[in-house]
Amino acid sequence: MAMWIWYFGDYELYHHLKLHMRRDEYDYKFPPFWRLDDCHHNVVFHRAFSLDKPGSIQVWARGTGMLEVDGKRYPFDGREIALSAGEHRIEAKLMSMELPSLFVTGAVESDPTWDVCAYDGKWVKADGDWWRQKPEDDPCVFRFQYRRLHPVSMEALEGGWLYDYGEETFAEVCIGNWDEMPADEKVDAPVHLRFGESRAEALSDEAILQVQLNRGDPALISARAFRYVWVSTDMPLTAREEFLPLRPRGSFRCSDERINRIWDVSLRTFHLCSREFFLDGIKRDRWVWSGDAYQSYLINRYCFGDEAIVRRTILALRGKDPVGSHINTILDYSFYWIMSLEDYHMTTGNDDFIRRVWPRAVTLMDYCLQRRDGHGFAANEGNGWIFIDWAEMDKEYAVCAEQMLLLRALEAMQHLAEIVGEDGSGYAALFAELRARVDEFFWDERQGAYIDSFASGRGHVTRHANIFALLFGYAGEKRDRILQNVLLNDAVTDIRTPYFKFYELDALCQAGRQQEVMQRMLDYWGTMIDQGATSVWEEYSPDEPMEAQYGMYGDQFGKSLCHAWGASPIYLLGRWFIGVTPTSPGYATFDVRPEPCGLDWFEGNVPIGKWHGEVHVRVQDGVCTACATVDGGTLYWKGKSVQLERKVVVQLA
Amino acid sequence: MAMWIWYFGDYELYHHLKLHMRRDEYDYKFPPFWRLDDCHHNVVFHRAFSLDKPGSIQVWARGTGMLEVDGKRYPFDGREIALSAGEHRIEAKLMSMELPSLFVTGAVESDPTWDVCAYDGKWVKADGDWWRQKPEDDPCVFRFQYRRLHPVSMEALEGGWLYDYGEETFAEVCIGNWDEMPADEKVDAPVHLRFGESRAEALSDEAILQVQLNRGDPALISARAFRYVWVSTDMPLTAREEFLPLRPRGSFRCSDERINRIWDVSLRTFHLCSREFFLDGIKRDRWVWSGDAYQSYLINRYCFGDEAIVRRTILALRGKDPVGSHINTILDYSFYWIMSLEDYHMTTGNDDFIRRVWPRAVTLMDYCLQRRDGHGFAANEGNGWIFIDWAEMDKEYAVCAEQMLLLRALEAMQHLAEIVGEDGSGYAALFAELRARVDEFFWDERQGAYIDSFASGRGHVTRHANIFALLFGYAGEKRDRILQNVLLNDAVTDIRTPYFKFYELDALCQAGRQQEVMQRMLDYWGTMIDQGATSVWEEYSPDEPMEAQYGMYGDQFGKSLCHAWGASPIYLLGRWFIGVTPTSPGYATFDVRPEPCGLDWFEGNVPIGKWHGEVHVRVQDGVCTACATVDGGTLYWKGKSVQLERKVVVQLA
């Protein structure tokens, strides 16, 4: 099937660059503070092929250049080019200040089997988009879908109107009636708009997203995050939601309506943040962060199961060689990027993508390894940022949580090397060495916990490194002590971001504490939703008064009220309550271990593997019913287990 | 003085990329076959400064982003921003899919003292353009000037009209009367145009530049190379020459009108090829080649003396790190690039530019050195192209001429290291070692010449390596034997390209053979012009019939009839007849050694140094008159010498 093709990874770099030009704050744009790479602008595509019988092709391109078919030159104008039976060779030399891309249809068709080169002496396989199969498609325009929104209320206020769209959205807004207007309409009088994720924000001059239109400005305002809009004019407002058409393949319903609501709000949040790539949040930062994305990959497993957005995000985040800094400038975020490849492979079983990305994993890991200190620890060498979490932590010199991530990334590299048939023994050796050294330097026998930093002598304990030790299986026989001394110890400072709560709750579930996790979800997400949240917030403190909730980074309304990392209940419910997880790449085999956890009943679907695989699970009255659309599953229930065969309903009591 | 500024070197990369999208051949564009780098798209500018008294600034940008003045945010809209007396700090975060650039005017102004960073942990000084001092200037548009052209004849032919503009030009063409038309006019009927550097080309369906306009196509055709245009319509044609406003500071006039004509045609040729950067030719390739550019730098010394175009070309050619291939994929062209820095410094004395470019010289030289063979010779390691010249040459394994260039480049590196205060002794050691080895492997005592290749055992001698040995001063006491056995030996194959003729004639002049060079100029350039050339051709064989002259690369009109490398008479006449050459950087001292060479009289100007320096020389009746607008010169005439003082006329008889 013919599709638009481009240099592998360049579509992602191009749209990643464009995306990062769009964050609005007050009257200005807010570019990210890290290196952003652009696509290649001068490339050549190549394909040699053989025809059994005469045929013809038509060729189009985005960009300018020259098509050579069997050495004869043609323009890229879609003219019919006749080909005899026998051997042929196509070369398409293309330049563009945007994304050079090619579309060939007919006797041979453009697809990712074509070769492409950016004149660096290396030919790679092209990449393409199955959803771009027409000459008139433009790979330089990312394709969203749109739907008309209608406000649930309008209120005359402060000499204008406050529109409430009922829930968080990401939408274009137009002054006037969209359906009756030409696309390039201008306003004929000044208009002031304030967008609010909260009502208070839309009514405040401190609203992060504000637009002042002057006479003659376009009447259409590009898509942005809001639930409320206050507008200074009586002219009607039209809003069109802009979204990526993702179908939820995963679902969850249970006897507790608050839990159902948590799932729904999490899904809404996650869908809004799933666009060209996985975003952190839609008002702010509207950027692509590797740590946030890593969680999104895991959440995606249990709802959309969309492989394409994961690949796009992985490629966009990585950028081009040579590596000049950590991903997003954050040390931990480089490790997450490497870990994400292993997760991607486990989810999809797609060896081909891993083979294509492998060289970029090697150079990134090289970059990380070269920056270790004399002990072999990943330390901050001045140019990076030790993030881990927004938490008080002793970040003096080498930080334990970073070593845990480095260990995990080394394991991932070893595993990825196997997949691509390379020698990963070097990574294995480094792993073994570092693992021993981490225990030697960071384990505090007296406290029965990993400390943040050994250099400071403070022996400070936070949850983060200890959570990782549990999650990654590095705790060994220290497991129970860590659980008691840290995770279940109220004296150790709480995790306050949904970001790290993800890992904490994951670790608790892994330790069989689903009941506790269910309660924590109700306390945190449940309370947030009870207070009116229609999407999950970047951060939330149930004990703070409402008027203090919206601030962040010194801005009164700085907090993002729609943040992907808050959608972890999708992951937690799918992974630990429905209990589905792959046990070999691409869900060739998978476990289903439902955990009713005191609910009267629950049922859910989890996407399985690449295409339309799904497993359905229902638990009620001590009976578990399961059915998968693919082979390979094993259902575990009350000490029994049974193989799931394709489309066969199984019931265990 | 306020000017538009950008990341150092990025203006050049951006316009270099755009330029290489414009080569037309028949119905398509012809992109170059090497890597083209783009500018950074996400940068931050920074300036800390102190004000004695209150003031204000206005800030504009190309791109999108955020301005922070003392931590307070502003848009880039030129609003007046008041500043108190005291310390201030400006940070401008800018993104653009084109060239991010900044303009600040008022109490502090944007100029190359500002710092800029592309988020790679390295701050560099910005670069700017003294000719862009207004907010409305757009650094993304290269500024040319235009002048209306009028045909010298119009002839009704083949159902259309043949316009002859009298000489080679580079011009926009418009169907209709430009002066009466809106800029976006469309044609209302199909029009066919054929452009010709020769009359034959414009009348042939094989013309390289042809345009088929259909109803509704723009009536304006972008600038291109031609002297003749054939057009299928009776509508009038308007042509506007597009050119870089360069003032010739050098001149030459003598008693031989053919020599004067050679100078004029060379200057016309060179001016047409001097645009954003030094081009090889204006019809073809319309690309920037390092070998061609190196000669242009030398020619520029004796006519325009324009420093800016040299800097632009050097930066554009070099591209970004890491080096992925030789410049233009050609081994020799990497060496010329390094050599050009030394020439640039000698011409201008501009240490600052050398300091800025030095890191890029080091990484390019590293790339070259890493690719040497076991003998330490620069050899073709598969991914590069040994060019040297379009000549039969034994290119088996390591080629002697390449080693000569590597030697010269090593000397240049050593010298550049001194300028920037780095240790160049490594380069000096490599030079000494390689020089001995070249003699050992390539010098053929029996033939009294350097051979092309030692590996093949053929012992083939061409002029190229021997010319370099003379020119670069590596011949030592072999000097006269090389001259006799090679340069003056008709049995050794002639140089046929004006490209390598440049070096051959330079070497002959250096050996005091001006008389011979004068004759060769008359035979080659003189004959070409006698045959009607209004610009110097890419290649010329006086003995071939006219109808065979226009072909190249298998195209009947493939040859470029306006090629910069043919403008060497400007260099030769200035360097070896007027006899001016710098003897210390920036012409702080310079020699004037006129060589009348049998002419009744000649006079000329040569630009001296950066600004408006000039030396004027006249020779007649055995008397030499000279005057310079700057100090530092020494006039040598008939065994006598005298210091030239600023604006003092000196006469020696």
What would your notes on this structure say?
The structure is a homodimer of 653-residue chains. Helix content of chain A is 29%, strand content 25%. Chain A contains 14 helices and 31 strands. In chain A, helix 3 (257-272) packs across helix 14, helix 8 (400-420) runs parallel beside helix 10 (463-471) and helix 10 (463-471) packs antiparallel against helix 11. In chain A, strands 14, 15, 16, 17, 18, 19 and 20 form a 7-stranded antiparallel beta sheet that branches. A 6-stranded antiparallel beta sheet of chain A has the order 7-6-9-4-11-12, with no helix packed on it. A 5-stranded antiparallel beta sheet of chain A has the order 21-26-27-28-31. Among the domains of chain A are: 4-129, Galactose-binding domain-like (Jelly Rolls); 145-243, Galactose-binding domain-like (Jelly Rolls, Sandwich), CATH 2.60.120; 580-652, Maltose phosphorylase, domain 3, CATH 2.60.420. At the A-B interface, strand 3, strand 6 and strand 9 of A face strand 3, strand 6 and strand 9 of B.
Shape of chain A: globular
The tally of helices of chain A reads 14
> Which percent bin holds the helix content of chain A?
25-40%
SS-based class of chain A: alpha+beta
> How many angstroms does the end-to-end distance of chain A come to?
48 Å
What oligomerization state is this entry in? homodimer
Specify which chain pair forms the largest interface. Answer: A-B, 43 and 43 residues
In the CATH scheme, the class of one domain in chain A would be: Mainly Beta
